[in-house]
């Protein structure tokens, strides 16, 4: 037996004006789950504690709660001393019980066709990744779009896609999805990462529904403009100043005369090439200072991420073939990205013959020269396509802490992804405002990120300077160089 103390959210609308966290100390068996701790509290200390459970084996979804801020199934999460147990981020009925009705009722049901056709094996295989949902609503509780705009949410969209694939259904599921907010999803992937059944809702449902919508002519006009630009120029944004690719040679050697630590191909991406070339140039300086040799094929084009996220995939294979070919022809075995969206796309949507690494992975793997410390307090914004798309969280923080003091804030979507900034600007602004409020709470001097879309968008919603990890490191090196000259 182990003695643990946990904090549990308590709220009774009949007597409380607001909720509170109540500490409880109980004894549980080794390996006990959160649900076992709740049973112990209910049976031995306070029988008024309200929570839901049924199967106790991760199959019904009844016991979904937040533990230390993250949605989990109470019957599957091992209890640890000091845990904070709260309800999902949904309307609370009492204690850990939330109102599920509105979201459950929004889930569509099959409308039998007049002459149903049995699904083929291929159709069944396409449906399989979507049918294991247990309707726990963990995904709904973390969806940023649902907080600021009309959107039925990830659970409903998953079911809509399932029905759209089923020949036995007669509903107009694609039109329904557009009506219900299909294009409000920011592709943040929070829903997928908290799903206890690992259902990849953004990639297997949202993006597929958008592709079907595109075939029906329902793609948003602004998204169509982006696709037309990619087809015409190979880039998703227009040129506003000399591009990064225009300012560099194909091969950048490390500074100094030592043997390079590594040779990397560099995939620059549309934003750092066309809109934020100074940031990419900063990154090259940091890499070269730290012994990295860089090869930059000039023929590279858009990775296709804006097209994948908005369902416009008719030229995607051509983009993939072009980009893979320009690096493969130079016998490059590792390609580096510094755009979170490009990196996630190359890692997850391409099948490359080379390794893909984010710049934060490269710099932490090979090590960096210590920069001079800057007298600043900084907060870091986790780009969704870096944190969830690539699983990269600690590497940028490790770099940042070497040059400034880091103040953490919640990892929430800024609203710039999934085509929302261009297609749903009011929603993007609302999420940007929410991100700005969290930045304000930190009282940080600057905001640091590692994604051009995040950097560009957040800059419009905070009065703090917004900088890339590499740019801040370069400032540290520049300060170090000035100090050494004075000595």
CATH fold assignment of the largest domain: Rossmann fold
- By secondary-structure content and strand pairing, the structural class works out as alpha/beta
C-alpha-based Rg, rounded: 25 Å
The fraction of residues in strands falls at 5-15%
What's the assembly state of these chains?
single chain
Extract low-pLDDT stretches: none
Strand order of the largest sheet: 2-1-5-3-4
Q: What is the terminal-to-terminal distance? A: 62 Å
Q: Please bin the fraction of helical residues.
A: 40-55%
User: How many strands?
Assistant: 16
The CATH architecture of the largest domain: 3-Layer(aba) Sandwich
The largest β sheet comes out as: 5 strands, mixed
Kindly give the count of domains: 4
Describe the fold and architecture.
There is one protein chain. The chain has about 475 residues and is an alpha/beta fold. It folds into four domains: about 1-100, Beta-grasp domain (Ubiquitin-like (UB roll)), CATH 3.10.20.30; about 105-215, Fumarate Reductase Iron-sulfur Protein, Chain B, domain 2 (Orthogonal Bundle), CATH 1.10.1060; about 235-365, Rossmann fold, CATH 3.40.50; about 370-485, Rossmann fold (3-Layer(aba) Sandwich). Helix content is about 40%, strand content about 15%. The chain has 23 helices and 16 strands. It has helices at about 35-45, 100-105, 120-125, 140, 145-150, 155-165, 175-180, 190-195, 200-215, 220-235, 245, 270-275, 275-290, 305-310, 315-330, 340-350, 360-365, 385, 395-400, 420-425, 425-440, 450-460, 470-485; strands at about 1-10, 20-30, 65, 70-75, 85, 90-95, 95-100, 250, 260-265, 290-295, 335, 355-360, 375-380, 405, 445-450, 465-470. A five-stranded mixed β-sheet has the order 2-1-5-3-4. A five-stranded mixed β-sheet has the order 8-10-9-11-12. Strands 14-13-15-16 form a four-stranded parallel β-sheet, sandwiched between helices. Strand 3 and strand 4 (about 70-75) form a beta hairpin. The longest helix has 18 residues, at about 425-440. It is globular, with a radius of gyration of 25 Å. The N and C termini lie far apart (about 60 Å). The mean pLDDT is about 95.
